[in-house]
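User: hey, got a sec? need PABS domain-containing protein folded
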Amino acid sequence: MKIDEEVIKACSKHMKKVCGDTLEKWEGANYKIKICDCILELKEALASGTKYDYVINDLTEFSVDKDKYGE
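Assistant: Yep! Here you go:
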């Protein structure tokens, strides 16, 4: 079970002092929250020339597997 969406909802509700109203909407003028495979998303961004200011990834979710994702 992926809990990412539930964690975001819980933080939005119970951690207002930390995140303010940023998590009320998943997309704003200068941000977009995506729940996806970060490595694949970044590979697609690199190929298309898309750039991000910040990327937040749950590093404890998986180990990076060079056989699966490459260098």
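Quick note: Helices lie at 4-14, 16-19, 38-48, 66-69. Let me know if you need anything else on PABS domain-containing protein.
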